Every structure is written in structure tokens, then in C-alpha cells.
Amino acid sequence: MIEQLYRRLLDRWNARDAAGFAALFTEGAHVIGFDGSMMFGRAEIESTLAKIFAGHPTATYVAKVRHTRALGADAAMLTAVAGMVPPGGGELNPAVNAIQSLVMIREDDEWKIALFQNTPAAFHGRPEESAKLTEELKELVRPAS
User: Fold this and answer.
1) Torsion-angle region of 108 (φ positive above 0: left; ψ -120 to 50: alpha; else: beta)
2) Mind listing the domains of the chain with CATH numbers?
3) How, if at all, do strands 25-32 and 110-120 pair?
4) pTM of whole model > 0.85?
5) Which carries the bigger pLDDT value, residue 8 or residue 138?
6) Burial tier of 28 (Cβ tally within 10 Å: 0-12, 13-18, 19+)
7) Alpha-carbon gap, residue 27 to 112, rounded angstroms
8) Is the CB of residue 83 less than 8 Å from the CB of residue 110?
9) Whole-angstrom Cα distance, residue 122 to residue 96?
10) What angle do CA 105, 73, 76 make, to 5 degrees?
11) Tens digits of per-residue pLDDT, 103-125?
12) 45-56 pLDDT, tens digit each
């Protein structure tokens, strides 16, 4: 269930569905964006993403889950690596590779995201690590048809 919830999150982003994206979060969720911006609560997540999606075409995520872990019966965390393919493009943009972390909790028998953090995979001073991650993520990019 942990990885499925994460995949639904990426699917909603890739579909540019602000309401569907926000619905995956708890009412009081916290999101930390790639640029350090923060959103608090489902309503702010939805309204912020609606503006982003309306303002310009967004890139498509590809991702690979690195780690999942239960934090008890009603909590779990996930860490993944993610890349983005620009609109109309067929190649990954290495400048926006990221490490994504989620904390999920079960509320009323339904899993929701309580925290989502999207951190740049900059690997300062280690260009070989950046290149290695880019090559790994390139394998996930579907060729344009």
C-alpha cells in the first residue's frame, strides 16, 4: 500500500490533477517543494497546484522507490529518487533530479500522506553521483511515440 500511494501521487501530478493530488493528503499535511516552498494542509496544496498547473505545462515525473518502512501499525515512510521529463520532451532533465520522502498515516482505515518532501539531488562536489542517478532514471523514461 505504501508504494501504491506514492505511485498515485505521481500519477495525479502527471495528470495535472490538483484536486486528485491534494486528496491523497491528510487534512493537516505538510509539503516541502523542490525550491523550498511549503504548503500546509490539503486546501493549500490543491490551490497552489491548481495555480501551477493553470500557469504553465509541468514536467512528467519518473521515479524509483528506494526504501519503504513501517513506523508502526498506522504509519510508514517511503524514500524514492525521481526525475522529470519536460513537456513535449523525451529526455530527462538532470538539473531537477530529486530525492522524495513521504510519511504516511492511516486515518479511518485509509492511508494518507502526512508529509511530502521533494529535495534536489544536487550531490554537491560529487558529479559522478549525479551522473549515476541520471543514468538510472533515464531507464524509466518511455520513448516518445
Assistant:
1) left
2) 2-138 (3.10.450.50)
3) parallel
4) yes
5) 8
6) exposed
7) 9
8) no
9) 9
10) 45
11) 999 998 999 999 999 999 989 99
12) 999 999 999 988
Radius of gyration of the chain from its Cα atoms, rounded to whole angstroms: 15
Q: Which residues pair with 28 in a beta bridge?
A: none
Phi/psi of residue 17, nearest 5 degrees: -110, 90
Residue that is written with C-alpha cell 495555480 in the block: 51
Sheet (strand 60-70) strand order: 38-40, 25-32, 110-120, 98-107, 75-85, 60-70
Q: 19 in the Ramachandran plot: left (φ > 0), alpha (ψ -120 to 50) or beta?
A: alpha
Contact between 137 and 83 (Cβ < 8 Å): yes
Contact between 68 and 76 under an 8 Å Cβ cutoff? The reply is: yes
3-state helix, strand, coil in the chain (%, to 5): 30, 35, 30
Residue 145 pLDDT > 50: no
Q: What's the distance, CA 61 to chain centroid?
A: 7
The predicted structure's pLDDT at residue 97: 94
